[in-house]
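debug: dumping io for the single-chain case to check the tokenizer round-trip. Nothing else runs in this session.
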Amino acid sequence: MPVPSQHLKDLYRLLSSPKDEKEAKMLVHDLFTPQEVASLSERWQLIRELDKGTPQREIAKKLGVSISKITRGSRMLQCGSGGFKHFLKKLKK
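debug: decoded output
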């Protein structure tokens, strides 16, 4: 089922609105279930590890995740829209 473009614009606007980490935390914990927060957090950690050059098997052991999850993350890091690379660079500053 396609999402109406205005709904996506509203969501992007919402996600870009927190002014600090406290507001972001409030939004994340109201917008997502605890399981979704854990999953998103895990995904971001594996992306950070891939960016550091950590071998996939080491990431799997460290985070307790499957190689297939890491492979999907690696594919998104390499072939996605560029969001991961942008924010990895931005957050290193």
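debug: round-trip ok. Helices lie at 5-15, 21-31, 34-52, 56-63, 67-79, 83-92.
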